[in-house]
Description:
alpha/beta, Rossmann fold, two-stranded parallel sheet, 4 strands, 38% helix
Amino acid sequence: MRGWWRHVDFLRGVEEAAYRELTAPDAWIPYPDTEPTLRALRSSGLRIGVVSDFAWELRAHLAHHGMSHLIDSCVISYEHGREKPDPRLFFKACADLGTEPRATLMVGDNPVRDGGATACGLRTYILPAENRTGERGLADVLRLATERQTRDAQPPR
Length: 157
């Protein structure tokens, strides 16, 4: 990122300051439905992981917004020297969570990068890319996850 910024006229000479601003814990704001959805998923007994293409420490943002305790695994691309849709990132997240890919739901907002999870066998739900002004549609994810849990808990007929 810093290397790319050296080629942007208005950022030359201020790359480090720009990076500090971009990576500050309060620089990223979660969608309003993120925390309630994570809490509900967690209270239903599901493990939660993040696979991110952030080029810096995502965990600082999660901690700043009081959500780090809701996440069981963070697989961040820069820590692994690769980017989504590289399947190794999704397999790593599944391994960290102790889940089989086919029993794991990947939720993302980029059909190309996040859709790479399908190559690993993960069920994948792509949210629309939107401005961070309202709920994102995560209630649908909660519905999908809890319906599956309910269905799987029923005895076979």
